[in-house]
Structure formats: structure tokens, C-alpha cells
Design goal:
By secondary structure, this protein is α/β, with parallel strands linked by helices. About 45% of the residues lie in helices and about 15% in strands.
Amino acid sequence: MSSAIAPLLEKAVDGERLTPEEGLRLIESHDLTALGRAADAVTRRLHPEPYRTSNIDRNVNYTNECAAVCDFCAFYRPPGHEEVYVLPREVLYQKIEETVALGGDQILMQGGLHAKLPLEWYEELLSDIKTRFPQVNIHGFSPPEIHHFTKVSKQPLRVVLERLKQAGLGSLPGGGAEILVDRVRKEITRGKVLTEDWLNVNRVWHEMGGRSSATMMFGHVETLAERIEHLDRLRQLQDETGGFTAFICWTFQPDHTALSHIPPAGAFEYLKTQAVGRLYLDNIPNIQSSWVTQGEKIGQLALYFGANDMGSLMIEENVVAQAGTVYHLSLSTIRRSIEELGYIPRQRNVFYQYIDGE
Ligand code: SF4
């Protein structure tokens, strides 16, 4: 390595932890090739197996009503808006049936922050689904929703999580993290969970034995130092609990949002940030490529820039789709993307266990 950042990259490749200052130096670098090679070396050390994975699930957005206002969101409708919906059960069941028929084992169930639905409504939703589809994992309710449920129900966080778990909640998606720095959150969201509470939802869920994923949406109003601060907060919590299964990052999609004047971050920024994520997050085992926002080609290349997983074959995706850019890949395209890189594709569940019986 002849690059100016070579000593830092060697350190990370050897499994030594990077400091926030070192993380910042890496993300400020433009040496994408060196960052990618180092991230790939770390991925191969953590995942020497000849497989790269994906899973099959479906996004189910049970409501688009949202009491919060996020400038980057084109999906939500405020309470009382004529386009507000709450998904009827028959529609929901049909979506799950289709998912199961395609070999899916899970639904990713998220919504806006509905102003009125009581906690009992969510409990009933979970138990109705589990009664009909006991084999399907409900990967549901991102930390902002869980935090919102504590406000609506006036119940402590642990009680809310225990009641939802009892009703059938399987794992938590890491959505709504954006950038875990309150300066950024206050600039782009109103009425939505701040950093400490986002982390605390995960902390308590992990303490209960639960697992969740961690995400980052970048390329809007944050600085590079704030991206590193975000990674550092995740790393600190993971040291405490070990409950994050994976990290997924993607670039902000500006179309049809209140931030549409911000030019979209491109492939260079995406690959660089993900590579730094792999180098920095030495305690999170898996990184998912975000082909939904980056497309097939960059999504495939991401497997050489720190990712070891292609994420989900998402049968339906509404949230990013509302903001313009969304890519659909078939299962055969995902498998081919993995094979072209010299790996064997395998299907996994949310806990990264192989479920294809091969
Ligand atoms: S991102 Fe989530 S919390 Fe924010 S407005 Fe959209 S639906 Fe509501």
C-alpha cells in the first residue's frame, strides 16, 4: 500500500480498532481503491466461507400516516390527509401468502408514526399474523416507531417491547437511524426520536435477548465527522450488548422530498462510506449491500467494498420508491451477481443462518 492512509488501513486489516480521528482521516480520503481493498480484506477475514448471502422478504408498510415530519421522506402523510391508509388485514395476509409462495421467511413491517393506534392494535396485528403464519419472522417496528408507541401508550420502553415480543415480534429493523447525531436529526426531522432514545430502544431489546440491524442514511446535511460519530455510537452500543446482526448504509434519495435541492451522493461516496463502515465497525459481523438504492452494478461491487450480503430480495418497497430511485432485482440476478464475483449464493434468515438446506 503506497497511499497516505496505508498505516491506518493496515491497522484495521490486522484487526486493530480505529479511533474516531483515524476513521475521519479514512473517510476524508479519496483513495477509493485502497479503502476498498482493505475493507475487502477485513470482509474475507470475518467471512472466509465461500458463500455470500441474501434473503427473501417483503416490505409491508401497515400505515403511511405519520405524526412526525422528516424532510427526507416522501412516503408519509400527516394525520387527517385524504391519502392516509391503514392496511386492511385481507391485503396484509395476501402479501404474506405471496411472500411465502416465493420462498420468503419474513416480512419487514414498518409504518409511519400513527397518531392514534393504541399498543393493543399492534399486539393484535402481530398475533393475527403469527396465528396464520407461525413460520414467518416479523422483522418489525423500527426504533422511532417503538419510541412512539411508548409515548402513545404511556408505558415504559421495556414493557412495550416485552408486550410486542409476547405478541410475536421477532426482530427489529434498524430504520430511522439516519445520522445518530442530534444536530443533524434536529435539522431534518421534527417529532422523531433523537439519538439517545434510538440507541436505547436497541439496547433494551438486546438486553431482552433480541437482535436488530443498524443502518445509516447519509449524503444530506451531515459532515464527514458526523458520519464517523454515527459509526462510533453504533460501535459503542455493540460493545455493550452485541445485539446488532448487521450494518446497512445507503445514500439519501432526494427526489420528491423537502431536501430535493441537495444533489444525490453517487457511487463513489456510497462505496467509500461503506468501506469505512467495514473498517470501523470491527464488532458488527455483517454488512449488507444496498442495491435497492445503488442498482445492480454498484450493489454487486459493494460485495468487494466491505459487504458480505446482498440484503433482501424485496418483493415490495414503498418508502424509497416514493422518493424516485428504487431498483428491483430478481432472485436470479442477485444469485448471478454473487456468482460472478466467485462466491456461492446462499439464502439466509434474519439471524444469518443458512436456510436453503444446501
Ligand atoms: S421517515 Fe418515518 S418518521 Fe419520518 S416522516 Fe417518514 S414515515 Fe414518518
